[in-house]
Fold this protein.
Amino acid sequence: MNTPRRVLVGSTWSSPARAASGQPVPLVAIGLIVELVEPDVVKVALMYTCQPSPTAAGDVTVNLTQSSPLPASGSGATLLTCDGASHDVEVMVYGGPIFAAGPALASAQACTALTCGTDARKVTITEGPNPLAPSPLPPLPHLPSLPQLPSLPKP
């Protein structure tokens, strides 16, 4: 009697995270431009949404790797507010030995108490502030000029 054989085949692609029945998966998206703050520190902008069930707290971990001009990698994390609204957050990634302007790979995992959501993509490290990010400080108000002092007579 012939018994059917089952073959298990592996793959390298990933699928979206699955939650327990009825539990929404946190959404996280990595910005395409990241900022080189110091040679061993990169600021990564994220957008996330997570539901406040069972708690209103979550966390996100970001990993960054760069292969050129020298191999470098690092990670960073921060806490999240889970209230069902979309939020922007910046995560400081620490590593090295040194990061440089240019292409890199970033991944992020946002988790609640019950499940996690992920994102991974190619990013570009830029030197200085991210030109696409909003300015963190409002512009300074215009200050009035000081009146001119009268000149003193020459002796």
